[in-house]
Amino acid sequence: MSTQDAARLLVRTLEAEGVEYVFGIPGEENIHFVDALNDSPIRYVLVRHEQGAAFMAEIYGRLTGKAGVASATLGPGAINLQLGVADATTNSTPVVAISAQVGLDRIYKESHQIVDLVSLFRPITKWSELAPRAEALPEMVRKAFKTAQTERPGAVYLAIPEDVESAEVSADLGPLPVNVVRTQEPSASQIARAADVIALARRPVVLAGHGATRARASDALVHFSERLGLPVATTFNGKGVFPDDHRNALGAVGFMRHDYVNFGFDEADVLIAVGYELQEFDPVKINPNADKKIIHIHQSPAEVDDHYPVEVGIQGDVSRSLRALADSVHRRFDVNGTDRPPAPSHHHPKDELRSTDRPPAPSHHHSTDELRSTDRPPAPSHHHPKDELRSTGQKIRQMLQEELAEGAAEDGHPLSPRRIVADVRAAMGRSDIVLADTGAVKMWMARMYPTYEPNTLLVSNGLSSMGFSVPGAIAAKLAHPDRKVLAATGDGAFLMNSQELETAVRENIPITVLIWDDSAYGLIEWKMDLDLGRSSNIRFGNPDFVRYAESFGARGYRVESAAELLPTLRKALADDAVSVITVPVDYSHNLQLTDKLGDLTGPF
Fold first, then answer.
1. DSSP label of 539
2. pLDDT at 589
3. Is the pTM of this model over 0.85?
4. What angle is formed at CA 24 by the lines to CA 22 and CA 26, rounded to 5 degrees?
5. CA atoms within 13 A on the CB side of 218
6. What pLDDT, on the 0 to 100 scale, is given for residue 113?
7. Taking the CA atoms of the chain, what radius of gyration do you get in angstroms?
8. Are 52 and 25 in contact, with CB atoms under 8 Å apart?
9. What are phi and psi of 27, to 5 degrees?
């Protein structure tokens, strides 16, 4: 009987899944696997810390929809993967983490480097298992990818014992066929129920989350908003799924204080949540009295929360759900909503019996609103005071635009956060990618940075892990080599995984890193000042970041004045090199912002 190495069989199964990169560090117990990759089109990206490998796999999975693969040896190597693995699961991102494990000949007893890795990974993955024999690899790898990539996506973990990896198996064994789980059609009866809720609404508002981005529902979301005349806000993870320069855009919700966009939710009576997931931010921030009717549109059911009571749930393909719902609502709102509800529609219980696989039948509403074309603007509303010439949505957009314009004109040194955000936006194209690391950087960027396409501003919102942006930028550039990629990071987060600069230089992956330098954990200082009136244990010293970057073979830049930032960004982004820019930031603006928001009153 002809045979093959189990390690080669493992590589073949990864090839069948369409894997392009494996991010990792080899160890004694997985050398056969790493060696087998030399004869494969799969590129092994050697990293400097397994945490970096996991973050790379996560960002690759987030940008492509295909599971990113991280590899490590047993014991400490596998354990180092865990932060990135947990970050992927809490951010609903497909990742397959594979590590070595001690051989089956000693796994049952006390021995060197034995840790129950399967049990350690189980709480932070969708599936965690050990391969008990080499012959199981085709089935287990297929299950790993299917589980990771099926909604809601997340990380999985597979442990491969040393003697399983080095075993000989029949040459007849091969990868299983790849079958893709297809999203289901939305229920016609649920579409009809949701249409009734919207028909009776006074001021509906749309919230688009990460699930809408994963579903590639941007076009359908814009169509839905324009067809019904509804304002749309996004979560931090959903930024870009609805373009910020659209006339119906409200901006992003998720800031730690009541922001401009929240006033759009304060006035709403119906919340149409599209791909929103509770881990993105607490729904109490937009539904504090739990009195809004919620229409939940997603590929998976809603989680349970006191402040997220679902009136109608539509589970299925998000784009088809939005288009079917748009066709079923015979009413158009202005971006502030109208205050006069139409007569209720006359759906009957027998509608519940229609097949969910058929498109929804037209809704038989009899309100006078139905007689107007849904593409024509509604009759002028006489409800608003005559001095209120613009809608709440328009005012929210104007205030955010004014903030960005004011920031672009601020010329102090250290630089204001608003100036940095404005210059980053000016330096980046519409489809270029920014990764905003966790900390005060994330708050300023997610709140103020305009986005126009999905996945062009990436944050960690589920777990809010620090240190993901530098390794993540490497994966982003591999996923989209034609786009500029910028890691925007605080100095604290940067030094958590700055060793991956060497990976980028060695692998010739050009990225730019922008360090917001304040020699402190700025977000924690902000929170302490707000809640305690003082701060402590948050300040530290930094190396010379320019010389630090140059020591890895990267290019280093120091911004000495506000006027230098934009040209430095443009030069670094245009170079085919790894560049690090350090810019001093004045975070005294943090409290100025929260004080300003605390003084806001609404509705506008």
1. B
2. 82
3. yes
4. 115
5. 16
6. 87
7. 26
8. no
9. -140, 175
